[in-house]
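Before relying on records like the one below, remember that each one covers exactly one chain. Contacts with other chains, cofactors or solvent are not represented anywhere in the record.
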Amino acid sequence: MGGILIGTCSWTDRALLASGWYPPGARSAEARLRYYASRFPVVEVDATYYSLPTARNSRLWTERTPDGFVFDIKAFSLLTGHPTRAGALPPGLRPEGPPERSLRAAQLPGAVLEEVWRAFLDGIAPLREAGRLGSVLLQFPPWFGPGERERVRLADCRRRVPDDVRLAVEFRHPGWLAPGHRAATLEFLRSRGLALVAVDTASGLPASMPPVAEVTCPEVAVARFHGRSPAWGSGSKEERFRHRYAPGELAAWIPRVRQLAAGAKEVHVLFNNCCGDAAVSAAATMAGLLRSVTPPGA
């Protein structure tokens, strides 16, 4: 399928481990990653949203996967404006107080935020050096709406990251892609070399994002499938992502994925409907559809 890589948004999710998808012999972290990498060419690391990545883990991931396998890394929560548990910060950067309390970036000195960015980039450096870093996902919260201050924040993220690190931006505020803002959003992302993440979610809800598939970075395009639960944006994590894609729902995305592949060197199609084996099942179905559906004009 050329540069189209299909995988899931975790290989260690508890629901997946309990589903029976892994064979009985794959009980260790190493065995599970090796098995996953034998089935899919890309995975998103979700754990780095909750705690900073470490160079040790990045080296182990590289050693335990074959050449060509790539990791998309989800940015640490503090870096995208989400509340972050104080205890998730390195001891030297952690302010005084209970480790379980929530912090926002605005509550911390600028020098601390600089060090957090440095720690994040140091943690994924082995992946980058080995050519195994796919993209870094900047997933912004629902309250991060279109505005000048927010565009400055996006530009700042690009400034802090080396040019060869590909950044993918996922919005959770529908305003960015509403008809009155869409063209300006796409133009801004293109001007900064930021890849717009195309998303599939339930439609018709206040938090629903439109399925806009546009290439804004020639190096990479990303599509993330969250499922179509009616609890999207309002329920618990389990309720929000509980969905098993039907083949027809995925087939409707084939033209969009091919459109992305026509404009970007690499396309990452990632499934985040983490309920049992629903994500790995959908990823396998999507791969089969892309192989079997003949492109127009072929």
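The CA atoms of residues 100 and 200 lie 33 Å apart.
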